[in-house]
Every structure is written in C-alpha cells, then in structure tokens.
Amino acid sequence: MVIEMECFIPVVASCPLFKDIDTANIQNILQGTAYKIGSYKKNQYIFRMDQPIAYIGIILRGSVEVQKNFQSGKVVSLICKEKGDLFAEGAIFSKMPAYPCQVIARANTDVMLLPKQDVITALSKHKALLANFLTLMSEKLVMLNQKIELLSYCSIQSKIAYSLLHCISTDWASNVIELPYTQKAWAEHLNVSRPSLCRELRNLSREKILHIDKRVITILQRDAFELLLSE
After folding, report:
1. How far is residue 210's CA from residue 201's CA, in Å, rounded to a whole number?
2. Distance CA 227, CA 194 (A)
C-alpha cells in the first residue's frame, strides 16, 4: 500500500511516541526506517501470538484490540487502541521469540508497521524519542497492574466499582465520572457481556448507589459503592 508521507504525518505526530518532536524530525526518523503501511479488515489479525516479533505499530485509521489467549481456550481483552495509538511496543526489547498477545483489527484499519531493529536504532539516536518510549513503558506497567487487579475481582459489580474508582476517574474525590467509551467497549474492558453489565448497572441505579445518564455516572453513595470492592 503506497501512501505519501504527508498524508499520515499528522496522525503519527499525535502518537505519544513522538510527543514534542517537530514534523521535520519525525519525517527524518521515519525515513531512517523501512516502515510499511498495512491495511486490515475488521476482525483480521495484525499480529498473532505465534508470530515472530518483527514490528511495532501505529494506528493511522480505525482501531485495534489487544487480546491474551490462555491454554484453557479463554480469550481476555486487555486493551483497545484507537487512531494515533502505538501498539506492541512492549515487545521491542523482549527476549521472547513471538508476540505475547494477539492484535486484531476492530474495524477496517490502516497501521504503520515499524521494524523492531529500526526502532531500537532510532531510540539510540534521538533522546526525545527514547524519553517518550520510557514514559510509555512506565504507563503500560501501571495499566497492566490495574488490569490484573481488575480481573482478580469475581463479581461484575466489584469490577464496575474498581473500573470507575481506579481506571476511569482521574479525580479520586469526584463523584461524577464521564465514561470515555461506550458501554460495549466498557464491557469488553471488564471482560463481561454487555447485557450483564447493563443489568448490574440497573441494579446499582435501582439501589440508588449510582445515577446513570448515558455516559455520565454519578456515585450517590460513596461508602456503599466502595464496599462493592470487598465482594
């Protein structure tokens, strides 16, 4: 797929990896790599768990889902990423022979694929790029720890409570939270079905613990809500 660099530079510039790096330097960095553009249809694999680690990706259009497969056959959705996001970056310095997770297109999606070795070379040459990469790795560790803790809760209500208190709201004192995504995406994040999520939200609303107005959720009884974490 041939796309002129000028067409995708604005999206690449919005990627956290290139934060505070001007357009000229971004173009210079990319020209030093053997990047390629890939197009994927909805539900098509971008990376498989048995695939050798060769690239990281930047989403130019569409969105992707990162999943973890277990020997039991269970598939857990770890995170969904959107236009401008970087994915598989954690595999760059891994000694594992293959990707630890699979990446699937959630819609018709275009991605920039950057060769692993070219990225390592670029990181060694550009301090700002390296600083951004290390920040991303730090944030990813925090996110993965939160995801592990989220999956440790058994009940759907406790998952809802943890998600709202720890994963969504940046203001711990706030009782009003605006969901950054749809209920369908939220259910995928919690690893529960959407009907089950909606049922438990209705129950919490009926008990006057929460008030729900589309994507805006107000915690009416903070103590009772926090007690859900102990279930």
Report:
1. 8
2. 23
